[in-house]
Each structure stands twice: as C-alpha cells, then as structure tokens.
Amino acid sequence: MREILFRGKRLDNGEWVYGYYVYEELYKTSIIEANEKTGGDGYINPRYQLTSYEVNSETVGQYTGFKDENEEKIFEGDVIRGTYDEMTYQNKVIFADCGFSLVHNNNKYGYCAPLEEHESIELIGNTVDNPELIN
C-alpha cells in the first residue's frame, strides 16, 4: 500500500511542511496537518492530535509513492531527470490519466511517461523553489 502524504509551503514563513491535506471550505484555506510538530505558529487539532499549518494551495503536492536513486521522496511538482525508453530528459511530475508521470513540453496532455516505467530517476528540484528548471 502506498503512503498517503502531502506537502505544502507554509504561509507564515515559507517553509515546507509534510502531512495530511485538508481544505477548509468555510475559510477557503488549504491546510497541512503535520504528523509531527515543525515549529512556528501552527495550531493543534485536538481531534487528531496533529499540528495544522495554513499553506499556499498552489504549492500543495501529493507524494507519488516513488523515491529517486538517492531515496528522496518524489512529490507532484518536483522536477526530475529521468531515463525512459533509452531517452534522458528533465521535466515536472504530475498526476495524469496514466498515474504519476512527467509533463512533456509543459503539457499534461502530451506523451505520458509513468514514473514506474523509468529506468532511472533523479530528483533535481521542484517548480515552486526552482521554476527555471522547467523553462
């Protein structure tokens, strides 16, 4: 069974936080409920005993269930260098019709290269901290 995990950048200090994703409909906010206290001004959710942090919804990404060659977890929005079908390229990880895969030419409707079919994968950054990696 795949680990269900999300990450997002905190609004208060810009740091990444990892845990469970909650969307608060009433306040129109995105929240990561962290499974460990990471400091700052998060609040404790008494129902789950988790620390909650408001995050930028555009930075939220789900863990793909895959790790790169260095055992780093790969999330949606990460940029990887991969080898697939004897070709090496670098691009952004998204969730598409074929599962977690790479965007080609910044278009999720292009050729689908599922992560599990890659011969090698190296995490080189993410589109939030390193937008230049996909240009």
Short description:
The protein has strands at 6-9, 16-24, 29-34, 43-45, 50-55, 61-67, 73-75, 78-84, 87-96, 99-102, 113-114, 120-126. With 135 residues, it is an all-beta fold.
Helix content: under 10%
CATH architecture identity of the largest domain: Roll
Named CATH topology of the largest domain = SH3 type barrels
Q: Give the number of domains.
A: 2
How big is the Rg? 16 Å
Listing every helix as H and every strand as E from the N terminus to the C terminus, the arrangement reads EEEEEEEEEEEE
Structural class: mainly beta
Let me know the number of strands. 12
DSSP strand (E) fraction? over 45%
Largest sheet: 7 strands, antiparallel
What is the residue-mean pLDDT, rounded to a whole number?
A: 81
CATH class of the largest domain: Mainly Beta
Task: Output the number of helix runs.
Answer: 0
Overall morphology: elongated
Biggest sheet strand order reads: 4-5-3-2-1-6-7
Distance between the termini: 35 Å
**CATH-wise, what's the superfamily of the largest domain?**
YopX-like domains
Uncertain runs: none
Report what the structure shows.
The protein is mainly beta. It has 2 domains: 54 residues, no CATH class; 71 residues, SH3 type barrels (Roll), CATH 2.30.30.290. It is 0% helix and 50% strand. The protein is built from no helices and 12 strands. The strands form 2 sheets. A 7-stranded antiparallel beta sheet has the order 4-5-3-2-1-6-7, with no helix packed on it. Strand 2 and strand 3 form a beta hairpin.
